[in-house]
Design goal:
Blueprint lengths: L1 H27 L7 H6 L4 H10 L10 H20 L15 H19 L18 H9 L3 H30 L3 H22 L23 H11 L9 H17 L11 H18 L1 H7 L11 H9 L3 H23 L9 H19 L8
Helix pairs in contact: 1-4, 1-5, 3-4, 4-10, 5-6, 5-7, 6-7, 7-8, 8-15, 9-10, 9-11, 11-13, 11-14, 13-14, 13-15, 14-15
Keywords: Membrane, Transmembrane, Transmembrane helix
Protein name: Integral membrane protein
Length: 383
């Protein structure tokens, strides 16, 4: 019986992803791929709403499209399968080698679906809304902190939808839009606020996370050689770090997906900005600079948040100020230099019952608020 339950749990993400892929392939047969403007204008139609929901999975990288979302999940599934089988080509062990990826993915997806059930009506306003935030925040962090199992998985999803998503909605609609701030500031600030409240609740009511399947101790691996190959692999893995995957195969699926989406319909991914190539170039440069600059920290700590500018500072700068080389290079350099150590400084001061990802998202908010205006002063930045 135990073997049957284990097998069901391991195959569950693949079944979910397969179902999503089947529905989207059927959708493709119905007509040409819509651009972002058409998608946003037809969210009252079931097909467009489905595309929006699936696109939320790749929203954290600012790609907002169903194809990179499916690429990310298929790559992550392959990485998890390779980890279970012990294949060397699995890359960096997905979800930090805990073996919790199926629970993590399930909780994140449930949080996303619940968020749409509770807050999807906000999309009727005609303005962009942060419906994606539960997929890349509290649910996954709770699984990693307290372990797997249905109690933690479901409660993480519920708290994500009930606390994180409305906090982000408030920040975006009553702070970012009125003040003209990049919406990522509201997204990550809301994640930090909602998650802090959730972790306080878990401490006050431990039954919420009781009997969680404790995170597995990662297998002892030989100390990596932090050379050229490791550096390039680490840069690639940073692209899937925000949803707590941190794996090259998952990132490769994400990147191949967004490039394919751009070829199919240039006006569809990245909010129809036509800046996909500029985004990817800036994100890769920011990670490369960060990994090289903070290589010693990677060696001594085993992990360092060099992914932060990929999902905050660089895309906010490019989408706000344009894709000139001055904007790309300046945002990548400043983000790589400032954001990772700031995140570590904040995380080290958090209480032990809170996941350190809160420090990462706070560093994203501060870094974006400080760096994007500075980059805007440079020649080549859009007014």
């Amino acid at each position: 019986m135990e073997q049957v339950l284990t097998s069901t749990r391991q195959s569950m993400p693949l079944l979910i992803i397969g179902g999503i892929a089947t529905m989207l392939l059927a959708a493709m047969a119905l007509g040409p791929w819509p651009d972002y403007a058409h998608l946003a204008a037809t969210l009252d139609q079931p097909l467009s709403r489905l595309r929006w929901i699936v696109g939320d999975i790749s929203e954290v990288a600012f790609y907002k499209h169903e194809v990179p979302a499916l690429g990310l999940l298929l790559g992550a599934s392959l990485a998890h399968w390779a980890q279970v089988k012990g294949y060397r080509w699995q890359g960096f062990a997905i979800s930090y080698g805990t073996g919790l990826w199926p629970w993590l993915f399930t909780s994140s997806l449930l949080g996303l679906l619940l968020s749409h059930a509770l807050w999807g009506w906000t999309l009727a306003s005609g303005t962009w809304q942060p419906t994606f935030v539960a997929f890349v925040s509290l649910p996954a962090a709770m699984v990693l902190l307290f372990g797997g199992g249905w109690r933690v998985t479901i409660n993480g999803a519920l708290l994500g939808a009930v606390l994180v998503t409305p906090a982000c909605l408030l920040m975006v609609n009553y702070l970012c839009y009125p003040l003209g701030l990049p919406v990522v500031v509201g997204n990550v600030s809301g994640m930090a606020l909602g998650s802090a409240v959730a972790f306080l609740l878990c401490r006050r009511y431990p039954a919420l996370v009781r009997d969680g399947l404790r995170p597995a101790t990662p297998a002892t691996a030989s100390k990596p050689h932090h050379g050229v190959a490791w550096t390039l692999r680490r840069v690639l893995a940073d692209f899937s770090e925000a949803p707590f995957f941190g794996n090259e195969l998952a990132s490769l699926g994400l990147l191949l997906g967004v490039l394919l989406a751009y070829v199919l319909a240039p006006g569809a991914p990245a909010y129809g900005s036509q800046l996909v190539l500029h985004l990817v170039a800036g994100q890769a440069l920011a990670s490369l600079i960060g990994v090289l600059l903070w290589r010693r920290q990677w060696m001594t700590r085993g992990w360092y948040p060099t992914y932060i500018p990929i999902v905050s500072i660089v895309p906010a700068a490019v989408l706000t100020l344009g894709g000139s080389w001055q904007v790309i290079i300046a945002s990548a350099v400043l983000g790589a230099v400032i954001a990772p150590p700031l995140a570590v400084a904040i995380s080290q001061r958090l209480p032990g019952h809170m996941h350190p990802y809160i420090g990462n998202v706070l560093a994203m908010a501060i870094g974006t608020l400080v760096i994007v205006p500075v980059v805007g002063l440079l020649p080549g930045a859009a007014a």
